[in-house]
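Researcher: Let's do a round of design. I'm pasting the structure tokens now; please hold your answer until I've finished.
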């Protein structure tokens, strides 16, 4: 178990409902570090099917994650939040501050469910584009906006981590809405780092490649799993826990001079060229 370097901190992790999801792993890693954690979800998106293992086990989403958080001896809360709603995000901030006393960490993990957007741009539904951008980019912006206001009022700094995707850098075919919305998070983060730095608030992005979560079950069903992993130099998917450990570090005391950066976690699949 890591040192309790986050003891006394309060974190919000959005999009933490899936049993085999990244949000759950991040929330539990922060709780292991001693942070109190608020986890959010907005319920199932239209057309999203609950993974069979979750359905059969009676998994309750964010409520179960909050209970797991408490098992580490810290406080855990679950809230239903539509991150595309200014009013809903403001309520999240107000309730967290009222019940837990403060907000020190924000992890923007809520994202639109993988679905029928994976088509060439010429075939992409206009309303679906807008919805993906609204959830992935506008939702991140709203959470950053209202949480950073609270952090500034507190006057003790803070950490904002936004989960993007290697697709924002690699930009493969048929992911135009997803890749564009995630790339927008990179630009937003750069602005936040400049604006919030004087307040002692860091802002960073983690852009994972393929992770072993319920989100990629469709690749297993279609027999594309081996093909997908064949382009990963390390030959395996990342784990949600590996991403969670980086989140924990970036929120901790040893990362207070790291801000405005994008951390690729892709097993070597996406690499920056040398200058």
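Researcher: That's everything. Go ahead.
Model: Designed sequence:
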């Amino acid at each position: 178990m890591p040192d309790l370097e986050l003891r006394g901190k309060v974190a919000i992790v959005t999009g933490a409902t899936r049993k085999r999801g990244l949000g759950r792993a991040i929330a539990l890693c922060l709780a292991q570090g001693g942070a109190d954690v608020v986890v959010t979800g907005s319920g199932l998106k239209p057309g999203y099917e609950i993974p069979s293992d979750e359905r059969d086990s009676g998994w309750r989403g964010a409520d179960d994650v909050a209970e797991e958080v408490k098992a580490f001896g810290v406080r855990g809360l679950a809230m239903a939040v539509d991150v595309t709603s200014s009013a809903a995000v403001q309520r999240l901030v107000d309730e967290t501050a009222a019940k837990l006393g403060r907000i020190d960490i924000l992890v923007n993990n809520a994202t639109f469910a993988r679905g029928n957007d994976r088509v060439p741009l010429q075939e992409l539904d206009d309303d679906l584009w807008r919805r993906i951008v609204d959830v992935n980019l506008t939702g991140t912006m709203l959470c950053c906006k209202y949480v950073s206001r609270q952090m500034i009022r507190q006057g003790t700094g803070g950490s904002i981590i936004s989960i993007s995707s290697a697709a924002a850098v690699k930009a493969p075919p048929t992911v135009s809405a997803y890749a564009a919305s995630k790339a927008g998070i990179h630009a937003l983060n750069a602005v936040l780092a400049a604006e919030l730095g004087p307040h002692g608030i860091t802002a960073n992005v983690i852009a994972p490649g393929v992770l072993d979560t319920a989100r990629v079950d469709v690749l297993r069903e279609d027999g594309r799993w081996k093909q997908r992993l064949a382009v990963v130099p390390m030959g395996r998917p990342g784990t949600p826990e590996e991403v969670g450990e980086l989140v924990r570090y970036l929120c901790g005391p040893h990362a207070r001079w790291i801000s405005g950066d994008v951390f690729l976690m892709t097993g070597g699949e996406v690499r920056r060229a040398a200058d």
